[in-house]
User: What shape does this take?
Amino acid sequence: MELSPHLIAHTDPVSNPKAQVVGKGFRITVLTDRLFRVETSKTDTFIDEATQGVWFRNFEVPTFSVNEGENYLTITTDKCSLLFDKTVNKAKYVQFEGGAKVACDNKENLKGTYRTLDMTIGGYHFFKGKIKLSDGVVSTDGVAVIEDKGLILGADGKFKPREADTVDKYVFCYGRNYRAAVQAYYGITGGVPLIPRYALGNWWSRYKAYTQQEYIDLMTRFVDAEIPITVATIDMDWHWVNVKEKFGEQYKSANIFGIQGDGWTGYSWNTDLFPDYKGFLAWLKDKNFRVTVNLHPASGVRPFEDMYEQMAAELGIDTSVSRPDIPFDISDSEFINAYFKVLHKPYEADGVDFWWIDWQQGTKSKMNGLDPLWSLNHYHYLDNVEKPDGTEGRPLILSRFAGLGSHRYPLGFSGDTSVMWSTLNYQPYFTATASNIGYTWWSHDIGGHMFGIKDYELYTRWLQFGVFSPINRLHSTSNELQGKEPWKFDGQTERIAVDFLRLRHKLLPYLYTMNYRTYSEGLALCEPMYYSYPDAPEAYKVKNQYMFGSELMVCPITHKADKKTHLGKVHAWIPSGRWTDIFTGYVYEGGRNVDLYRDATSIPVLAKAGAIIPLGLTEGNDSGNPEDLEIWAYRGNGEFTMYEDKGDNSYVTDYALTKFMQAEGNGNYFAIEPTEGDLSVVPESRNYSVYFKDIVEGRLTVYVNGEVYDDCIVRDKCLKVRIKHVKPTDKVEITIEDPIYDSNLPIKEFGIETLSKVQGGTVANMFKYASIQKAKTDEEFVEKVKKSRFPKSAKGAILELWQK
Assistant: This one.
């Protein structure tokens, strides 16, 4: 049987013969001037079809030359030369323009990502030891090699095994231009899709057997508390789980590690818990929640399921005599068609937006070499394009990483993690490093899933990281005492959590623009520091530090705070230039390593000089394009183009771009340019609040279309301007003459403020401070602080701002 047409992906895998160099047992294809495909085969069998990972090879032929000897062959492009050893049929090394010679051995590979963090603590697996990340397409020596072992993806959309003796490798020769290497990878595999705007908000998720009313009450409490949640996740208890009790002892399901019960797989709503599931879904949609539902499909379709008869009929199974289980077979096109038509599309019509594919049953299927997880991700994503009304929409899934090309199927679910500091400490590195294999949209269990500890501080730090990670999905296990609702922690933790959840929602205009940047330019939201600073040794050492889009640098705190000062610490490298903490206002002159200290209310998130950050001021959990925008501007020269669309699948043509720019020279200048593109996707008018975050005072003038705009200045810790009823076609200009720039507190004043927060005996602290108090100069003050007996964290917090 043929696959349904909407399940067949577009590919263009046949390379131009003029780009190929063919010899006995090998074929080398020059895909770009810095990317080579090297195939070897004892039977001279080479692959022109698409594979699971690689879909595109038909590119314009680069200029290159071939120099062939008896044992070696050298292919030279404008950028580099590849030497191939014909005696062993291997690519040996690459020589770059300028003379550097690099072996094709991946010894300096910066690594990629991993299938799942299930059963791990930090970077270690319970049984397998240290997590071994896959290879990435970037390397510190400039040459990275990946091997494509994926099955063939035919033009009919079906998978088939490849010839057993073929070795298929891609050699990326991009030096330390890491972004270019990843972009080349997207060129052959396909790029990262634009994910829906709502997915960038806050998610609620919990493994718990909620009743319909309990879930409604919970979501209502979030709404009443003004905590914006955009995605409501319903874990596996939406369907029947107590299968033996409900339907008979004959039922059992696929088991892994002995932990999965008889009802792990299911497709019929549990009407004991959800007596009116359609009404339940309708209520969620009416309250502006998007809905995802959990799947464990390994046990197939059993006779007790509501849609068993229809599924059997689709597959030609006669149930008049017996009612056999219908086995799960994601390699069979007839089953695949029925799987979506019968089991999923009806529920999407009822209100399910996308599916959380929680596959944990291994890598084997009925087709040799086909990982069920891969097939599920591929077909589920393609199927989710087709909406119940027949239109095409913005697809989405939530599932684990399945290998090369998995970035085409966002989002990534990193699995069930333990609630421990070491787990949190591993996630920033794990998230940013995945960019090296193009995997940009990891979603972690924020707060951790199970086991571990109940720790207010850990929850706070994890949530703060979550807000500045690709997807902020709160999650926890069914343990009644392990919920991640903010009100299940002490008052201070609750207030901080609520503030950060609201901040995440406000960041949607920034995040969605970065989402478009990933889609259109191949640039990840979370990039390792060495992408921006490839020649700085320090950039490779701060593994938990990353750029968060074009404007921000994040240094998560992933260790417990000092008990006496309650300050958490993170070691950071601040690149050259001026950087300003968006929470504390601390200003740093870069080019140095420094320990950064923060209390529980924030983590270091630094805006670069000239940064412009748009934030939305929407009511409730609305994730649409806001009428009220707040702009945070950090002085310097910079620009930011905000992307907006309708949020559906028309983003290719129906979108709008609004450019903000600022300049610093003789005074400061800020402008909002007229919006370009489809103006129907943005509000008819907007209210802008522009915060000049590091300008305290100045003579400020606002112009709208060249006319002076009066009555718009408001002071609020920094210079703030509110401009109402701005049309998309208007141009706004703001000039600031004689600006007074904000600066850090004098070191003595800041030191006293910091030391006054140290807990302990007041008399003891007084004696410790006595010698410091005698300092007459800043330099003397700093030296006395260093020699004092105050806690290291207190001294460090003072010294981080000492920049002389």
In short: DSSP finds 17 helices and 44 strands in the chain.
